[in-house]
Amino acid sequence: MYIKDGICYAGELVPEIEVASIKILDDGMMLVDFSTGETRLFDVTSLLDKGSAFVPLASEENRRTAKVTHGFVSWLDGEIDIAPETLYLASKENY
After folding, report:
1. Helix, strand, or coil (residue 93)
2. Are 63 and 44 in contact (CB under 8 A)?
């Protein structure tokens, strides 16, 4: 249990994580640099089965619109975004 901003939460405090930068690769892959200093590999196409909001990312052209805004990744001028924590958990260590 922990308290943040006067509110008591169950579980453990997780440090905030942000996306520092990205590098778009071929075949829906992206290298993501996180505020932790880690660089991880993320498969953008893995989002296609997460709901209709991500369907536009089936297009390589749309995937290439990715940019970092305020610590998270967005596509199509902010129409689609993903939380940095979710991106981190869904990515893999880059060897």
Report:
1. strand
2. yes
Q: Which residue, 32, 30, 17, is CA-closest to 84?
A: 17
How much is the average pLDDT of 50-65? 95
Structure token digits, residue 69:
């805004």
Asked whether the beta carbons of 11 and 64 are under 8 A apart, the reply is: no
The 10s digit of each residue's pLDDT in 11-39 is 555 568 899 999 999 999 999 999 999 99
Q: What span, in angstroms and rounded, lies between the C-alpha atoms of 22 and 84?
A: 12
Band of the pLDDT at 47, cuts 50, 70, 90?
very high
Contact 74, 60 (CB under 8 A): no
Element (H, E) at 3: strand 2-4
